Amino acid sequence: MSIHRREIRRRSVLAGALATGLAGSLAACGGSDDSDSGTSSGPVKLTYWSWAPGMEKVAAIWNKKNPDITVTVSKQASGGEMVTKLITAKKAGNAPDLIQVEYQSLPTLVSNDVLADIAKYAKDAKSGFAEGMWGMVTLGTDAVYAIPQDGGALMFYYREDLFKKHELDVPTTWDEFAEVARAAKKADPDIFLTTFSSNDSGLFAGLSQQAGAKWWTVDGGGKWTVGIDDAATKKVTEFWGGLVEEGVIDNQPMYTPAWNSAMNKGKHIAWVSAVWAPGTLVSTAPDTQGKWRMAALPQWSAGESRTGSWGGSSTGVSSDSKNVEAAAKFAKWLNTDPEALAALVKYSGVYPAATAGQSSGDILKTPEFFPNQKDFYTDAAKISATAVASAWGPNVQTAYQAFTDGFGAAAKARKKARFASALDTMQAKTYQDMKKSGFKVTEA
């Protein structure tokens, strides 16, 4: 995405910008990007806000080896609640030293001066990550706002037994995907290949990214462009809307009792999801263990090799920290050290963003739910390396809510035209929200 490839400095990104409606006026930008905060003399105590399970066990490994820099984990909620709490804490001058940050939240926190630029202490970590993954924490600048922690590369999961039963081929392109959806419905009118879920804006964003979408971009003068209704996203919208209207794809949201039942009973025989899907299938479809396989996401053109992302988070250092260097040292260790990566997998159940963590058999074992696919993580690492950098903006939650509202109604109506209208509304609401909040903004 262009936002992740332009060489624009942090002050340019923030120039003229005000915080979103979530946060009120933008705090002054001075200090955090030019911070020389180092480790103070004597023992350093750091606080880490994180929602990942078992993170305190991972931090305990660090603390045992680094008694002069101890980290205390404070369990928090994720999503918008965490972002709001962080911005409030920043206004009060007491944000924690370390922060677990979802990738789509980074622009919001940078715009509110919550995150310190840790390039001075962490830029050398770049070589440990795929280009697209690293791009998500730099926002296209020469700054580094966080260290990638876990990834969510999109993949294609399918019921191997039912594909064989109905003589279906694993699709390698989206055109083939549509044909397989039709063939599955013809083979058994009671099943669907999969569903379109209007509750999962992150999945839709990832599919759009794979197609080349650039929802938010920013120029060197700090002027944003909102292009949610760009050609790539229109293509994705028309594709899924057409399949829903045709009746060969279900229109029900995921993560409901009805969806769980459909997955468990083989009424949905495939799932477009992320690398973390095996853990979800354990509780969603417990009776199907050993019946699924994973493959690369279908491509828009034969021979391409790229995927989007759904989920994932990073570790940032707050601009309030009095020990930026020490905090950055822990963030690097947490997300690049082999022992730390192994602990993150064991205790927190994450898929490491670091390439070393993705390729090591000592860190990642074949998922118990996929005993028939011994090379699961070997394939997953290859797919993850093709993930494109996401182009997020400062009001992601506004866009996501507009998606849920508009596409929810469109899916319920099963009308392709309603999908197109929902995308137009999503664009308009996102643009108007940024304009109202005081950003310099235009539409693509």
Description:
The protein is of the alpha/beta class and 444 residues long. Helix content is 42%, strand content 12%. The chain has helices at 10-14, 55-65, 80-92, 106-111, 119-122, 131-138, 160-165, 174-187, 201-210, 231-246, 257-264, 277-284, 324-336, 338-348, 355-359, 376-384, 396-413, 416-436; strands spanning 44-50, 69-75, 98-102, 147-150, 154-159, 216-218, 224-226, 270-274, 292-296, 313-317, 441-443. The chain has a five-stranded mixed β-sheet with strand order 2-1-3-10-4. Helix 2 links the parallel strand 1 (44-50) and strand 2. The longest helix has 21 residues, at 416-436. The protein is globular, with a radius of gyration of 22 Å. Mean pLDDT is 90; it is low at 1-37.
Record keyword descriptors for this entry.
single chain; alpha/beta; 5-stranded mixed β-sheet
List the helices and strands and how they pair.
Blueprint: H1 10-14, E1 44-50, H2 55-65, E2 69-75, H3 80-92, E3 98-102, H4 106-111, H5 119-122, H6 131-138, E4 147-150, E5 154-159, H7 160-165, H8 174-187, H9 201-210, E6 216-218, E7 224-226, H10 231-246, H11 257-264, E8 270-274, H12 277-284, E9 292-296, E10 313-317, H13 324-336, H14 338-348, H15 355-359, H16 376-384, H17 396-413, H18 416-436, E11 441-443
Helix pairs in contact: 2-14, 9-10, 10-18, 13-14, 17-18
Number of strands: 11
Rg, rounded, reads 22 Å
> How is the quaternary structure best described?
single chain
Q: What is the mean predicted local confidence, pLDDT?
A: 90
Basic shape: globular
Strand order of the largest sheet: 2-1-3-10-4
What are the low-pLDDT stretches, counting only 5+ consecutive residues below 50? Answer: 1-37
Distance from N terminus to C terminus (CA atoms, Å) equals: 14 Å
Please estimate the helix content.
40-55%
Please state roughly what percent of the residues sit in beta strands, choosing from under 5%, 5-15%, 15-25%, 25-35%, 35-45% or over 45%. 5-15%
Largest sheet: 5 strands, mixed
Q: Give the SSE string.
A: HEHEHEHHHEEHHHEEHHEHEEHHHHHHE
Structural class comes to alpha/beta
Q: How many helix segments?
A: 18
